[in-house]
From TrEMBL:
SUPFAM superfamilies assigned: TorD-like
Record protein name field: Nitrate reductase molybdenum cofactor assembly chaperone
Gene3D superfamilies: TorD-like
Alphabetically ordered keywords of this record: Nitrate assimilation
InterPro entries in UniProt: DMSO/NO3_reduct_chaperone (IPR020945), NO3_reductase_chaperone_NarJ (IPR003765), TorD-like_sf (IPR036411)
One Pfam family named in its UniProt record: Nitrate_red_del
Domain of life: Bacteria
Organism listed in the record: Streptomyces galilaeus
Length: 162
């Protein structure tokens, strides 16, 4: 079984736009992170343009399956989760500068942060939102749901107490 850090780094790669880097690393991802095999096996047999089109349909078509964690706050309730500004501050405290094209609350960025630092606080803080995203991806029938399944399985269960 892979360490959570390996799983988080692999999941971050799987949840980014499918490019040459992802396809080059699929065999390594498959071996290093067995919980992601459903996705990596699918990606390995899916032509790159087809997977890229699917990625855009799933993640770039409005907020229904957004990979921006701030999208998944409960409406009107900002207690849970971390704002992009708080995430940027957290990255800096760990000696990391956020320089990516994406915003700091982009799930692959948060997963990579957790993999590099061992700090799963941002993932745990967004646990309820990750679960909502996981359920939506599962209902949509996309292989990306397997990636969220694996990530969510590493986190504490969602507390439903008021």
């Amino acid at each position: 079984m892979p360490s959570d850090a390996v799983l988080y780094q692999a999941a971050a790669l799987c949840l980014t736009y499918p490019d040459d880097d992802l396809y080059a690393r699929l065999p390594l991802l498959r071996e290093a992170a067995p919980p992601l095999r459903e996705f990596t096996d699918h990606a390995a047999v899916t032509p790159r343009p087809e997977l890229a089109e699917h990625y855009v349909r799933v993640f770039d078509s409005g907020d229904r399956h957004s990979l921006r964690l701030s999208r998944w706050y409960d409406e009107g309730d900002r207690r849970d989760g971390m704002s992009p500004a708080r995430l940027t501050d957290l990255y800096r405290r760990h000696g990391l500068e956020f320089t990516g094209e994406e915003l700091p609350d982009f799930l692959p960025s948060v997963l990579e942060f957790a993999a590099r630092t061992g700090d799963t606080g941002p993932l745990t803080a967004h646990r309820a939102g990750l679960e909502r995203l996981r359920i939506r991806l599962t209902g949509h029938g996309t292989p990306y749901a397997a990636v969220l399944n694996a990530v969510c399985a590493t986190l504490p269960t969602v507390c439903t107490d008021p």
